[in-house]
Amino acid sequence: MAEPVLSAREAALSPPRAHGAPLASATLRAEPEDFVVEEDLGFAPAGAGQHLLVKVRKRDANTAFVAEQLARIARCRPHDVGYAGLKDRRAVAVQWFSLPRPREPLELAALSGADFEALEVLPHNRKLPRGALAGNRFAIRLRAQAGTGAQLHAALAGRLDVITHAGVPNYFGHQRFGREGSNLERMATPMRSLRPSERGFVLSAARSVIFNAVLARRVAAGTWGQVLAGDLAILEGRGSYFAVPAADDVLDARAAALQIHPTGPLWGEGSPATTAAVLELEERVGACYPQEAGLCLGAGMEQERRALRLAVHELTGEVEADAVVLRFRLARGCYATAVLRELLEPPDQVADA
């Protein structure tokens, strides 16, 4: 019997859940303060150097806009402003930016605008590159009907415990695919006719479709959290991975403890570095998305890996009269939407980046 093939849109926006149907509905992001995210850099500023690290709190503003405003204030090129990652617009986000250190000192109050304020300014020795953070902390308010916060918490409590112990599938969130999947539509447009920034978003979306589709197959098979013979396993919270020639009890125990995770392909030139049945699955899925794979190959992208499973750290649910506030920490590059979609219906309310 042939395996079902998800359309690119299904793989991007509605891949299968791992822990069952959503348990409840709730209103998300009624106010930007309902979604709070704070970066954890994972390192201390150098204390000296030719750059400044600026800790910024922004509200209902996207990262690129804040970067442009900081460049204007510091009188540098927008390209010279560094940040570790994009943060949601409809949110309150605390994140770090870097600026070239000006000749004249910048006052903290000067590095603020209508939608953002600088909280700290510290000397550093280099521009902040993308991905240069350990993870993000989230506080997300799920608004229920008046007076039903306790009932919502009771509905979610068992699933929160399951997620704590088993994690969730590490799907790329719908932010990756643009508003209403707009980056998927742009895949049919010749790359040379797109602006460089648009081109980057489209290529990222193409890779993400294939990754989500591979993960969806393993969710359907129940192996998304298992380390199989032929897998490349990645260490939790680390970028390093290792080959798994054969499964054994030690690896099974480490996977069950969320210490290691199987990985999936970020598509590019050549074959994935997995072997055996895992490689066969990944190549078979890749062949189902010739447009997306062709874009990755045409751009000269290299094969890379990403964890198939997302460990959700320090997950709690706090009861309010009319809401539940979820608090948790995720590793860098992971999406809060991956957690929320295992709890709530509909996931599409979770936001605009």
What tags apply to this protein structure?
nine-stranded mixed β-sheet, 28% helix, 24% strand, alpha+beta, four-stranded antiparallel β-sheet, 353 residues, Pseudouridine synthase, globular
Descriptive account of the structure:
With 353 residues, the protein is of the alpha+beta class. The chain has three domains: 153 residues, 2-Layer Sandwich (Pseudouridine synthase), CATH 3.30.2340; 69 residues; 82 residues, Pseudouridine synthase (2-Layer Sandwich), CATH 3.30.2350.20. It contains nine helices and 15 strands. A hairpin with a 2-residue loop joins strand 14 and strand 15.
CATH superfamily of the largest domain: TruD, insertion domain
Q: According to CATH, what is the class of the largest domain?
A: Alpha Beta
Provide the succession of SSEs. Answer: HEEEHEEEEHEHHEEHEHHEEEEH
Measured between the Cα atoms of the first and last residue, the distance is 40 Å
| Total DSSP E strands | 15
| Number of helical stretches of at least 4 residues | 9
**Global Rg:** 21 Å
Task: Summarize it.
With 353 residues, the chain is α+β, with helices and mostly antiparallel strands. The chain has nine helices and 15 strands.
Topology:
Blueprint lengths: L7 H6 L13 E2 L6 E6 L10 E9 L3 H12 L7 E2 L8 E9 L15 E9 L10 E9 L5 H18 L1 E2 L12 H4 L10 H26 L10 E4 L5 E3 L5 H8 L3 E7 L9 H12 L2 H9 L5 E4 L1 E2 L2 E8 L2 E9 L4 H5 L13
Parallel strand pairs: 2-5
Antiparallel strand pairs: 1-7, 2-7, 3-5, 3-6, 4-5, 7-15, 8-13, 9-10, 9-11, 11-12, 14-15
Helix pairs in contact: 5-8
